[in-house]
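Section 3.1: Structural characterization of target chains.
Under the original work plan, the team committed to producing a structural model for every single-chain target entering the pipeline before any wet-lab resources were allocated. The record below documents one such target. The sequence was received from the expression subgroup and is listed exactly as submitted; it comprises 259 residues.
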Amino acid sequence: MPDKAPPKPPPVDGERTVLMAAGAVAVAIAALIVWQVIANIDGVISFGQYIADRPDEILARTWEHTVLTVGSVVTATLIAVPMGIAIMNNTVARNVALSVAGILLTVPSLAFFAILIPIVGIGALPPYIALTIYALLPILRNTVTGLDGVDGAVIESAKGMGLSRMQRIRKIELPLAWPVILTGIRVAAILNISIAAIAILVGGGALGAFIQNGLTRFGFPGHVESVWTGTLFTILLALVFERLFALVGRLTTSEGLQS
């Protein structure tokens, strides 16, 4: 019979002190949150009423936010994945493409929107273009990383079977790299959900409209509720996308790669 694992030693005094301190901090934070909720119960009720009075507007803004995010991520995927396949064996092209995409990602989103306004005008198009560019780096980087991670022995076996380069990519390399590529798409989607909240500043709509409305009406009734509505539903949308990508990953990845 295999030997049993030795029992875990009890925490030493230093570890016990750290655990007790962390527990005390967690309890204090929880108590503070509960106290704030109780102290501002009227605000909580007002926030709930604000949401209950605007279901159609919230749904419409959430849909705008979703369309803007999905459209930009799909476009970026259609650009970045073929680009990653094309440059994966060319070190110079790969370094240049990743560097350019990284530099573009560092441009502040509001500045990017402002640069695009004289070219394409206001509305949903400037944030759509900017979000597409922002999504390129994580998808491109993960495509290259995923393809580089494919075992060379597997590729040589595919060559021995007479598969062409495109057949190897389509039947062998892309399926094996898919979990890594999907992670890049997920990161790009969550990133774009957050950035899309300021699309309203160039007429792009989405959930940022609630945030802008609250900030421009600061001091008037309902301004806090408006800001929190835009913030809360943006976070909820990101959580929904996170779970959807987890589901897609389970459904489209073989059991061997999942394990």
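The chain is about 80% helix and 0% strand.
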